[in-house]
Specification:
Layout (H helix, E strand, L loop, with lengths): L9 E3 L5 E2 L2 E2 L3 E2 L17 E5 L2 E5 L5 H9 L4 E3 L5 H14 L4 H18 L3 H14 L14 H7 L4 H14 L4 E6 L4 E7 L10 E4 L25 E5 L9 H52 L2 H44 L4 H15 L4
Parallel strand pairs: 1-7
Antiparallel strand pairs: 2-3, 4-7, 5-6, 8-9, 8-11, 9-10
Helix pairs in contact: 2-6, 4-6, 5-6, 7-8, 7-9
Length: 370
Protein backbone atom coordinates (compact mmCIF):
# COMPACT_ATOMS: atom_id res chain seq x y z
CA UNK A 1 0.00 0.00 0.00
CA UNK A 2 2.85 2.34 0.83
CA UNK A 3 0.50 4.57 2.79
CA UNK A 4 -0.78 4.81 6.34
CA UNK A 5 -3.95 2.80 6.04
CA UNK A 6 -6.94 2.96 8.33
CA UNK A 7 -5.60 5.93 10.27
CA UNK A 8 -8.85 7.92 10.14
CA UNK A 9 -11.32 5.45 8.74
CA UNK A 10 -13.25 4.64 11.89
CA UNK A 11 -16.17 6.69 13.07
CA UNK A 12 -16.53 5.51 16.66
CA UNK A 13 -20.08 5.70 17.99
CA UNK A 14 -19.51 3.66 21.12
CA UNK A 15 -22.25 3.44 23.69
CA UNK A 16 -24.93 4.46 21.23
CA UNK A 17 -26.93 1.32 21.96
CA UNK A 18 -30.37 1.84 20.45
CA UNK A 19 -31.23 4.81 18.36
CA UNK A 20 -34.85 5.62 17.76
CA UNK A 21 -35.80 2.19 19.09
CA UNK A 22 -33.73 0.38 16.45
CA UNK A 23 -30.84 -1.93 17.35
CA UNK A 24 -27.67 -1.12 15.44
CA UNK A 25 -25.19 -3.77 14.29
CA UNK A 26 -21.79 -3.68 15.94
CA UNK A 27 -20.23 -2.25 12.79
CA UNK A 28 -21.46 -0.59 9.60
CA UNK A 29 -18.78 -0.89 6.89
CA UNK A 30 -18.46 1.03 3.62
CA UNK A 31 -20.98 0.17 0.92
CA UNK A 32 -21.74 1.14 -2.65
CA UNK A 33 -24.85 3.16 -3.40
CA UNK A 34 -25.27 3.18 -7.20
CA UNK A 35 -25.50 6.60 -8.84
CA UNK A 36 -28.26 6.37 -11.40
CA UNK A 37 -27.64 8.24 -14.64
CA UNK A 38 -23.86 8.05 -14.32
CA UNK A 39 -21.80 7.43 -17.44
CA UNK A 40 -18.29 6.32 -18.37
CA UNK A 41 -16.13 7.95 -21.00
CA UNK A 42 -13.91 4.96 -21.60
CA UNK A 43 -12.82 1.65 -20.13
CA UNK A 44 -9.32 0.20 -20.12
CA UNK A 45 -8.30 -2.72 -22.30
CA UNK A 46 -6.02 -5.06 -20.35
CA UNK A 47 -3.50 -6.89 -22.54
CA UNK A 48 -0.87 -8.87 -20.67
CA UNK A 49 1.58 -11.74 -21.19
CA UNK A 50 0.59 -15.21 -20.07
CA UNK A 51 2.68 -18.33 -20.58
CA UNK A 52 4.04 -18.17 -24.15
CA UNK A 53 1.65 -15.57 -25.53
CA UNK A 54 -0.54 -12.56 -24.76
CA UNK A 55 -4.19 -12.35 -23.76
CA UNK A 56 -6.64 -9.45 -23.59
CA UNK A 57 -9.44 -8.70 -21.13
CA UNK A 58 -12.07 -6.07 -21.92
CA UNK A 59 -15.51 -5.92 -20.31
CA UNK A 60 -18.15 -3.29 -19.76
CA UNK A 61 -18.93 -2.24 -16.20
CA UNK A 62 -22.06 -0.63 -14.78
CA UNK A 63 -21.46 3.15 -14.67
CA UNK A 64 -23.91 3.53 -11.78
CA UNK A 65 -22.02 1.04 -9.60
CA UNK A 66 -18.63 2.44 -10.57
CA UNK A 67 -19.74 5.98 -9.73
CA UNK A 68 -21.27 4.74 -6.49
CA UNK A 69 -17.98 3.13 -5.54
CA UNK A 70 -16.18 6.39 -6.27
CA UNK A 71 -18.54 8.37 -4.06
CA UNK A 72 -18.91 5.83 -1.24
CA UNK A 73 -18.37 6.72 2.41
CA UNK A 74 -15.27 4.64 3.11
CA UNK A 75 -15.36 4.95 6.88
CA UNK A 76 -16.14 2.05 9.18
CA UNK A 77 -18.81 3.00 11.72
CA UNK A 78 -18.38 1.09 14.98
CA UNK A 79 -21.15 0.81 17.57
CA UNK A 80 -19.09 -1.13 20.07
CA UNK A 81 -15.41 -1.58 20.81
CA UNK A 82 -13.98 -4.29 18.55
CA UNK A 83 -10.46 -5.68 18.48
CA UNK A 84 -8.17 -4.50 15.71
CA UNK A 85 -8.29 -7.91 14.05
CA UNK A 86 -12.10 -7.84 14.07
CA UNK A 87 -12.65 -4.39 12.61
CA UNK A 88 -9.85 -4.63 10.03
CA UNK A 89 -11.37 -7.88 8.73
CA UNK A 90 -14.86 -6.37 8.59
CA UNK A 91 -13.53 -3.31 6.82
CA UNK A 92 -11.67 -5.07 4.01
CA UNK A 93 -14.29 -7.75 3.41
CA UNK A 94 -16.78 -4.97 2.76
CA UNK A 95 -14.74 -3.77 -0.21
CA UNK A 96 -14.24 -7.25 -1.67
CA UNK A 97 -17.81 -8.46 -1.16
CA UNK A 98 -20.11 -5.51 -1.74
CA UNK A 99 -23.12 -7.16 -3.46
CA UNK A 100 -23.47 -4.44 -6.09
CA UNK A 101 -20.18 -5.70 -7.59
CA UNK A 102 -21.42 -9.22 -8.29
CA UNK A 103 -22.41 -8.50 -11.93
CA UNK A 104 -18.94 -7.00 -12.44
CA UNK A 105 -17.29 -10.10 -11.00
CA UNK A 106 -19.51 -12.35 -13.13
CA UNK A 107 -18.64 -10.55 -16.37
CA UNK A 108 -14.92 -10.48 -15.59
CA UNK A 109 -14.91 -14.16 -14.62
CA UNK A 110 -16.76 -15.02 -17.84
CA UNK A 111 -13.98 -13.33 -19.84
CA UNK A 112 -11.31 -15.17 -17.85
CA UNK A 113 -13.11 -18.50 -18.28
CA UNK A 114 -13.19 -17.98 -22.03
CA UNK A 115 -9.38 -17.85 -22.00
CA UNK A 116 -9.23 -20.81 -19.61
CA UNK A 117 -11.36 -22.96 -21.88
CA UNK A 118 -9.55 -21.89 -25.05
CA UNK A 119 -6.14 -22.69 -23.53
CA UNK A 120 -7.40 -25.81 -21.73
CA UNK A 121 -6.00 -24.61 -18.40
CA UNK A 122 -6.09 -26.76 -15.29
CA UNK A 123 -6.97 -25.24 -11.90
CA UNK A 124 -3.39 -24.20 -11.10
CA UNK A 125 -2.80 -22.54 -14.46
CA UNK A 126 -6.20 -20.86 -14.26
CA UNK A 127 -5.26 -19.38 -10.89
CA UNK A 128 -2.02 -18.17 -12.48
CA UNK A 129 -3.99 -16.59 -15.34
CA UNK A 130 -6.15 -14.62 -12.91
CA UNK A 131 -3.06 -13.66 -10.92
CA UNK A 132 -1.15 -12.53 -14.02
CA UNK A 133 -4.14 -10.39 -15.05
CA UNK A 134 -4.32 -8.55 -11.72
CA UNK A 135 -0.53 -8.23 -11.47
CA UNK A 136 -0.46 -6.65 -14.94
CA UNK A 137 -2.69 -3.77 -13.84
CA UNK A 138 -0.30 -0.84 -13.36
CA UNK A 139 0.73 -0.23 -9.77
CA UNK A 140 0.09 3.32 -8.65
CA UNK A 141 -0.21 4.78 -5.18
CA UNK A 142 -1.69 8.13 -4.25
CA UNK A 143 -0.52 9.54 -0.92
CA UNK A 144 -3.53 11.84 -0.81
CA UNK A 145 -5.92 8.86 -0.63
CA UNK A 146 -5.73 6.63 2.43
CA UNK A 147 -8.70 4.35 1.72
CA UNK A 148 -8.69 1.27 -0.51
CA UNK A 149 -10.67 1.10 -3.73
CA UNK A 150 -13.54 -1.22 -4.45
CA UNK A 151 -12.45 -3.85 -7.02
CA UNK A 152 -14.75 -2.38 -9.68
CA UNK A 153 -12.84 0.91 -9.28
CA UNK A 154 -9.45 -0.76 -9.67
CA UNK A 155 -10.60 -2.36 -12.91
CA UNK A 156 -12.28 0.79 -14.21
CA UNK A 157 -9.36 3.04 -13.26
CA UNK A 158 -6.86 0.64 -14.81
CA UNK A 159 -4.51 1.10 -11.84
CA UNK A 160 -4.22 0.56 -8.12
CA UNK A 161 -1.86 -0.02 -5.23
CA UNK A 162 -1.26 -3.13 -3.16
CA UNK A 163 -4.53 -3.27 -1.23
CA UNK A 164 -6.59 -2.26 -4.29
CA UNK A 165 -5.11 -5.02 -6.43
CA UNK A 166 -5.14 -7.57 -3.61
CA UNK A 167 -8.85 -6.98 -3.01
CA UNK A 168 -9.55 -7.54 -6.72
CA UNK A 169 -7.48 -10.71 -6.90
CA UNK A 170 -8.91 -12.18 -3.69
CA UNK A 171 -12.45 -11.38 -4.82
CA UNK A 172 -11.95 -13.12 -8.17
CA UNK A 173 -10.21 -16.20 -6.76
CA UNK A 174 -12.81 -16.64 -4.01
CA UNK A 175 -15.62 -16.59 -6.56
CA UNK A 176 -13.82 -19.23 -8.60
CA UNK A 177 -13.74 -21.57 -5.60
CA UNK A 178 -10.21 -21.08 -4.33
CA UNK A 179 -9.58 -20.79 -0.60
CA UNK A 180 -8.02 -17.37 -0.33
CA UNK A 181 -7.24 -14.69 2.22
CA UNK A 182 -5.84 -11.20 2.37
CA UNK A 183 -2.47 -10.82 4.07
CA UNK A 184 -2.56 -7.54 6.00
CA UNK A 185 0.88 -6.31 7.16
CA UNK A 186 0.09 -3.37 9.44
CA UNK A 187 3.68 -2.60 10.41
CA UNK A 188 4.83 -2.40 6.80
CA UNK A 189 1.60 -0.81 5.45
CA UNK A 190 1.38 -3.60 2.87
CA UNK A 191 -1.18 -6.09 1.64
CA UNK A 192 -0.87 -9.29 -0.37
CA UNK A 193 -2.99 -12.38 -1.08
CA UNK A 194 -2.71 -15.92 0.21
CA UNK A 195 -4.10 -19.04 -1.47
CA UNK A 196 -4.25 -22.40 0.24
CA UNK A 197 -1.47 -24.57 -1.15
CA UNK A 198 0.21 -27.92 -0.86
CA UNK A 199 3.83 -27.24 -0.04
CA UNK A 200 4.71 -23.55 -0.35
CA UNK A 201 3.30 -22.20 2.90
CA UNK A 202 3.99 -18.64 3.95
CA UNK A 203 5.33 -18.38 7.50
CA UNK A 204 2.84 -19.80 9.98
CA UNK A 205 -0.05 -20.10 7.51
CA UNK A 206 -1.18 -22.81 5.11
CA UNK A 207 -1.36 -20.28 2.28
CA UNK A 208 1.03 -19.55 -0.58
CA UNK A 209 1.99 -15.88 -0.82
CA UNK A 210 0.91 -13.88 -3.89
CA UNK A 211 2.37 -10.40 -4.45
CA UNK A 212 0.03 -8.23 -6.52
CA UNK A 213 2.15 -5.11 -7.05
CA UNK A 214 4.26 -6.72 -9.79
CA UNK A 215 4.48 -9.86 -11.88
CA UNK A 216 5.78 -12.61 -9.62
CA UNK A 217 5.32 -16.32 -8.99
CA UNK A 218 2.60 -17.70 -6.77
CA UNK A 219 4.35 -18.94 -3.63
CA UNK A 220 7.54 -16.83 -3.86
CA UNK A 221 7.41 -13.74 -1.59
CA UNK A 222 9.45 -10.73 -2.70
CA UNK A 223 12.83 -10.32 -0.96
CA UNK A 224 11.83 -6.71 -0.31
CA UNK A 225 9.11 -4.23 -1.22
CA UNK A 226 9.55 -1.11 -3.32
CA UNK A 227 11.73 1.35 -1.50
CA UNK A 228 13.70 -1.45 0.14
CA UNK A 229 11.14 -2.25 2.86
CA UNK A 230 11.51 -5.74 4.32
CA UNK A 231 8.46 -7.64 5.56
CA UNK A 232 9.34 -8.60 9.14
CA UNK A 233 5.90 -9.00 10.72
CA UNK A 234 3.45 -11.87 10.50
CA UNK A 235 0.31 -10.98 8.55
CA UNK A 236 -3.21 -10.64 9.82
CA UNK A 237 -5.00 -13.29 7.73
CA UNK A 238 -8.41 -12.15 6.48
CA UNK A 239 -10.33 -15.00 4.79
CA UNK A 240 -12.32 -14.01 1.71
CA UNK A 241 -15.18 -16.23 0.55
CA UNK A 242 -15.66 -19.88 1.37
CA UNK A 243 -13.73 -21.63 -1.41
CA UNK A 244 -11.91 -24.91 -0.90
CA UNK A 245 -9.68 -25.26 -3.98
CA UNK A 246 -5.91 -25.45 -3.33
CA UNK A 247 -2.87 -24.55 -5.38
CA UNK A 248 -0.95 -27.75 -6.16
CA UNK A 249 2.03 -26.56 -8.26
CA UNK A 250 4.32 -25.82 -5.31
CA UNK A 251 6.79 -28.56 -6.22
CA UNK A 252 7.44 -26.77 -9.51
CA UNK A 253 7.54 -23.39 -7.76
CA UNK A 254 10.17 -24.71 -5.36
CA UNK A 255 12.24 -25.96 -8.30
CA UNK A 256 12.04 -22.51 -9.90
CA UNK A 257 12.95 -20.85 -6.60
CA UNK A 258 16.00 -23.11 -6.18
CA UNK A 259 17.14 -22.34 -9.72
CA UNK A 260 16.74 -18.59 -9.13
CA UNK A 261 18.76 -18.83 -5.92
CA UNK A 262 21.46 -21.08 -7.35
CA UNK A 263 21.90 -19.03 -10.53
CA UNK A 264 22.19 -15.85 -8.45
CA UNK A 265 24.82 -17.51 -6.24
CA UNK A 266 26.75 -18.80 -9.23
CA UNK A 267 26.66 -15.43 -10.94
CA UNK A 268 28.18 -13.86 -7.82
CA UNK A 269 30.84 -16.56 -7.43
CA UNK A 270 31.77 -16.55 -11.11
CA UNK A 271 31.85 -12.75 -11.18
CA UNK A 272 34.54 -12.86 -8.50
CA UNK A 273 36.48 -15.53 -10.37
CA UNK A 274 36.19 -13.59 -13.62
CA UNK A 275 37.43 -10.42 -11.93
CA UNK A 276 40.46 -12.28 -10.55
CA UNK A 277 41.16 -13.91 -13.93
CA UNK A 278 40.85 -10.55 -15.69
CA UNK A 279 43.43 -9.05 -13.33
CA UNK A 280 45.80 -11.96 -13.96
CA UNK A 281 45.33 -11.66 -17.74
CA UNK A 282 45.95 -7.93 -17.59
CA UNK A 283 49.16 -8.49 -15.62
CA UNK A 284 50.26 -11.22 -18.02
CA UNK A 285 49.48 -9.00 -21.01
CA UNK A 286 51.65 -6.26 -19.53
CA UNK A 287 54.43 -8.84 -19.02
CA UNK A 288 54.15 -9.93 -22.67
CA UNK A 289 54.23 -6.31 -23.86
CA UNK A 290 57.34 -5.73 -21.80
CA UNK A 291 58.98 -8.91 -23.14
CA UNK A 292 58.06 -7.95 -26.73
CA UNK A 293 59.67 -4.56 -26.25
CA UNK A 294 62.85 -6.12 -24.85
CA UNK A 295 63.11 -8.64 -27.69
CA UNK A 296 62.58 -5.89 -30.24
CA UNK A 297 65.38 -3.87 -28.64
CA UNK A 298 67.65 -6.95 -28.62
CA UNK A 299 66.93 -7.53 -32.30
CA UNK A 300 67.77 -3.91 -33.18
CA UNK A 301 70.93 -3.90 -31.08
CA UNK A 302 72.22 -7.14 -32.61
CA UNK A 303 72.24 -9.15 -29.36
CA UNK A 304 71.17 -12.32 -31.17
CA UNK A 305 72.31 -14.68 -28.42
CA UNK A 306 70.08 -13.08 -25.78
CA UNK A 307 67.26 -12.71 -28.29
CA UNK A 308 67.41 -16.43 -29.20
CA UNK A 309 67.50 -17.34 -25.52
CA UNK A 310 64.24 -15.47 -24.93
CA UNK A 311 62.38 -16.95 -27.93
CA UNK A 312 61.28 -20.20 -26.18
CA UNK A 313 60.47 -18.22 -23.04
CA UNK A 314 58.31 -15.90 -25.11
CA UNK A 315 56.63 -18.85 -26.84
CA UNK A 316 55.84 -20.51 -23.50
CA UNK A 317 54.40 -17.31 -22.03
CA UNK A 318 52.22 -16.73 -25.12
CA UNK A 319 50.95 -20.31 -24.94
CA UNK A 320 50.12 -19.94 -21.24
CA UNK A 321 48.42 -16.62 -21.92
CA UNK A 322 46.30 -18.10 -24.72
CA UNK A 323 45.34 -21.02 -22.47
CA UNK A 324 44.33 -18.54 -19.78
CA UNK A 325 42.25 -16.58 -22.29
CA UNK A 326 40.46 -19.77 -23.33
CA UNK A 327 39.78 -20.59 -19.67
CA UNK A 328 38.51 -17.07 -19.09
CA UNK A 329 36.17 -17.30 -22.10
CA UNK A 330 34.87 -20.67 -20.92
CA UNK A 331 34.20 -19.19 -17.49
CA UNK A 332 32.53 -16.20 -19.14
CA UNK A 333 30.26 -18.51 -21.14
CA UNK A 334 29.40 -20.44 -18.00
CA UNK A 335 28.52 -17.18 -16.29
CA UNK A 336 26.43 -16.09 -19.28
CA UNK A 337 24.36 -19.27 -18.98
CA UNK A 338 23.69 -18.49 -15.32
CA UNK A 339 22.89 -14.83 -16.03
CA UNK A 340 20.55 -15.70 -18.91
CA UNK A 341 18.74 -18.33 -16.84
CA UNK A 342 18.38 -16.05 -13.83
CA UNK A 343 17.10 -13.15 -15.93
CA UNK A 344 14.67 -15.41 -17.76
CA UNK A 345 13.19 -16.83 -14.58
CA UNK A 346 12.73 -13.49 -12.82
CA UNK A 347 11.12 -11.91 -15.90
CA UNK A 348 8.80 -14.80 -16.83
CA UNK A 349 6.80 -15.30 -13.66
CA UNK A 350 3.67 -15.30 -15.85
CA UNK A 351 4.84 -18.62 -17.36
CA UNK A 352 5.29 -21.13 -14.55
CA UNK A 353 5.27 -24.24 -16.83
CA UNK A 354 7.92 -22.79 -19.15
CA UNK A 355 10.02 -21.53 -16.26
CA UNK A 356 9.84 -24.91 -14.54
CA UNK A 357 11.08 -26.69 -17.68
CA UNK A 358 14.11 -24.39 -17.87
CA UNK A 359 14.76 -24.44 -14.13
CA UNK A 360 14.71 -28.24 -13.96
CA UNK A 361 17.10 -28.57 -16.91
CA UNK A 362 19.42 -25.99 -15.34
CA UNK A 363 19.49 -27.75 -11.96
CA UNK A 364 20.16 -31.10 -13.58
CA UNK A 365 23.01 -29.62 -15.62
CA UNK A 366 24.43 -27.81 -12.59
CA UNK A 367 24.61 -30.89 -10.39
CA UNK A 368 28.08 -31.77 -11.70
CA UNK A 369 29.42 -28.34 -10.78
CA UNK A 370 27.90 -27.86 -7.33
Amino acid sequence: MQRQVLAILIAMILGAGCLGGLFHPEAVPPEIVPVEGASLDHLPVHTFPFEDGEVTIHIDIDPAVYAGAKEADRRLHLYRDLSEEEWISIYYRAFADDPHQEPFYADLIAALRTIRDRENLDDDRYLELITAFVQSIPYKTDDSIIEPKFPIETYGDGEGDCDDKSLLLAGLLAREGYRVALFYFGEEAHMAVGVESVGCWYRNTDFAYIETTNTSYVGIPPPELSGGTLIASDPLVIPIGDGTQCYYACNQIQTIERAISLSRTRVDVLAQELAECAQELEAESEHIDSLNARMEWLSRSGDIWEYNRLVPVHTQIIQEYNDAVRSYNALLEESRVDVDLHNYLVTHAYDRPGSYFRARAYLEGSAAFW
